[in-house]
Amino acid sequence: xxxxxxxxxxxxxxxxxxxxxxxxxxxxxxxxxxxxxxxxxxxxxxxxxxxxxxxxxxxxxxxxxxxxxxxxxxxxxxxxxxxxxxxxxxxxxxxxxxxxxxxxxxxxxxxxxxxxxxxxxxxxxxxxxxxxxxxxxxxxxxxxxxxxxxxxxxxxxxxxxxxxxxxxxxxxxxxxxxxxxxxxxxxxxxxxxxxxxxxxxxxxxxxxxxxxxxxxxxxxxxxxxxxxxxxxxxxxxxxxxxxxxxxxxxxxxxxxxxxxxxxxxxxxxxxxxxxxxxxxxxxxxxxxxxxxxxxxxxxxxxxxxxxxxxxxxxxxxxxxxxxxxxxxxxxxxxxxxxxxxxxxxxxxxxxxxxxxxxxxxxxxxx
Length: 366
Fold this sequence. Notes:
Elements: E1 2-4, E2 21-29, E3 34-39, E4 45-50, E5 55-59, E6 65-69, E7 76-81, E8 88-92, E9 96-101, E10 106-112, E11 120-123, E12 129-134, E13 137-142, E14 147-151, E15 160-163, E16 171-183, E17 188-204, E18 210-215, E19 220-224, E20 229-233, E21 243-245, E22 251-254, E23 259-264, E24 276-279, E25 285-290, E26 296-301, E27 305-310, E28 318-321, E29 326-331, E30 337-342, E31 346-353
Parallel strand pairs: 1-20
Antiparallel strand pairs: 2-31, 3-4, 4-5, 5-6, 7-8, 8-9, 9-10, 11-12, 12-13, 13-14, 15-16, 16-17, 17-18, 18-19, 19-20, 21-22, 22-23, 23-24, 25-26, 26-27, 27-28, 29-30, 30-31
């Protein structure tokens, strides 16, 4: 294992650039902690779940409630859209995953996950499978609601899961002592990558070559799947629960501070390199999201701010107040807006106008 300790990495300086222009479009109230917001694939609707168990589908432009779903007893934990936009999955403290028709609000399936608290649920990239974790159990269903894969072969509670991007159907879960990668189609284990520590969050790079975890011991692990080699980046002041890859799978943005640390993961990897640091609003970073196709990074903070940087040069960000602490932040698939869920129960959408690319000599973009 290679170890890197940036202490407090120095910010990479760059010529000034015009920041994005951002402005709130609407805000609605969920009534309780809005723990997760996700966009429909067509960027027309936003789904949000709250700690009181409710799930609401909003019209993304007007903020009107398109569908209010029955939700989960005792609390909802996660929500995800299928890639075709025809199904919405939610999970919660009642031990179930529920599959909804978001157009009608009809509950199509109620799936028993095998435990009392279903922390995470997610559709595969092709939309054909839905996975959920509860305790040490991982269960996968097909779109008809039939169990396709089921295992509790994990050393401790699963804290996060991520499907392989693109056409692959690998499924990674993180837990104490590392990461396990499964192939649900063949019901086999691809990888078990071990280290001593507790992973809290995980992100699979868009090219499928790397996995990253944010950890309880204030570190970040960067795993190279082809070799199972890993790097350990330390020096964060608190545990790391926010990770985001850019669309090119080159840059990994991490929280764990009031600043955003960005690692360049292009070959041969971030070992021996100095990370870029983006300064925030002096409160803890609580959410991160890269633009789907451009070099812009959005962050939410404990102080209730949303910040958007041109991440290639670290110029001053655009910022807007959203009320309570940001619990979830997500770019629309078309890259024009941000959805935000807040700890005070607020859900909203922010318009983002991106400036033209910064160009230098010979018209090269930066």
